[in-house]
Amino acid sequence: MIPFNFVYYRPDSLGAAAEVYEKLRREGVSAVYYAGGSEIITMCRAGAIEPRAVIDIKRIPECMILSPGDRRMTIGSACTLSQIGESRMFPLLALSCGRIADHTNQCRITLGGNLCGSIQYRETSLPLLLSDADISLYGPEGARDVPFHSVFDGYMRLKPGELVVAVHVPVWALTAQCAHMKKTANEKIDYPLVSVAAVWRDGCLRIAFSGVCAFPFRSQAIESVLNDRTMTRGERAQRAACLLPAPVTSDAEGSGEYRLFVFRNTIDEILEGWENGTL
Ligand SMILES: Cc1cc2nc3c(=O)[nH]c(=O)nc-3n(C[C@H](O)[C@H](O)[C@H](O)COP(=O)(O)OP(=O)(O)OC[C@H]3O[C@@H](n4cnc5c(N)ncnc54)[C@H](O)[C@@H]3O)c2cc1C
To answer: Would residue 117 count as lying in a domain?
Structure first.
């Protein structure tokens, strides 16, 4: 049970959503955009947040698009992980979606919710960081279309009242050679110890990680080391572990030392598959 009252809005356009958000802000009413609701409802029940209004974005057509295009594929922020997976249009994102939570929750969790939620893994960001994706945002100040990496540095950097409308993925990324590995401590469906997405573009490896540090990241320093074939696989994995952008996470899932061990082994596995042509 949610132990407080709140007002539910379901706008049918981006303009109406931003307008209601602004109106509530002026009235001093705390509001959140509501997509799958999996995190919002859990946090309301736990007393971690107490929004007095929720603005459901699932009736906004631009947030529900899932369509291929000539130059790029568009994926609306309110598409669920299972819709993205079942569409099979962007294989690397489908692989990431397929390893987040269980099937029942995948039918509810949305792309935008995963990117904007407070759970630190945000695994759907990895394929977007690797594929030169763009993102459309909309808020009280209007619309903007920007490169995904310019507003996502482990967290979505949104302006007040702004919402994620859709992401756009260039066609090259939809057919690029790719790999996805998620290592968990216990069950297959679990938070990651280490989650890795990789894409090959013009013969070079691009790679992004979640679970290792407190936020997901792509590191060009790590990529240059991993693409340097003058070193053995083990040396490259070892060097990569020294180039992490933040301290290694140590929690109930696994100690920092164990995570680093898994990190190095996962990199080794990806490099081996690349070199042997088995990925
Ligand atoms: C059982 C379970 C296992 C999980 N395991 C993993 C895992 O292994 N890896 C992982 O990455 N995640 C995992 N998650 C986290 C899950 O991905 C989040 O619950 C999810 O991110 C929330 O998505 P939602 O659509 O339900 O968002 P909501 O609960 O609707 O919203 C979450 C937050 O995002 C904001 N928001 C939602 N959509 C938008 C938008 N379009 N624009 C701006 N803000 C928006 C909301 O205001 C809210 O602050 C797991 C969740 C569950 C329930």
So the answer is: yes
Closest-CA residue, ligand 1 atom 8, reads: 191
Tell me how many domains the chain contains.
3
**CATH number of the domain that residue 105 is part of:** 3.30.465.10
Best probe residue, ligand 1, of 30, 80, 119, 122 (max atoms within 8 Å of C-beta): 119
If you measure from the C-alpha of residue 112 to the centroid of ligand 1, how many angstroms do you get, rounded to a whole number?
7
Classify residue 2: in a domain, yes or no. no
Find residue 134's DSSP bridge partners. Answer: 147, 168
Tokens of 76: 């609306």
Do 69 and 80 sit in the same domain of this protein?
yes
Residues in the chain: 279
> pLDDT band at 223, cuts 50/70/90?
very high
In-domain check, residue 1: no
Integer Cα distance of 242 and 219 in angstroms = 12
The answer, yes or no, to whether any atom of ligand 1 lies below 6 A from the CB of 211, is no
259, pLDDT greater than 90 = yes
pTM: 0.97
Q: What residue numbers bound the domain in which 140 lies?
A: 61-174
Cβ of 119 below 6 Å from ligand 1: yes
CATH number at residue 40: 3.30.43
Pocket of ligand 1 contains residue 54 by CB under 6 Å: no
* 79 CA → ligand 1 middle, Å: 12
Q: Enumerate helices (H) and strands (E) in the chain, giving the number of each.
A: 13, 12
Cβ burial of 253 (10 Å; 0-12, 13-18, 19+) is middle
Task: State the closest ligand 1 atom to the C-alpha of 210, by its place in the atom list counted from 1.
Answer: 11
Residue range 119-168, pLDDT digits in tens: 999 999 999 999 999 999 999 999 999 999 999 999 999 999 999 999 99
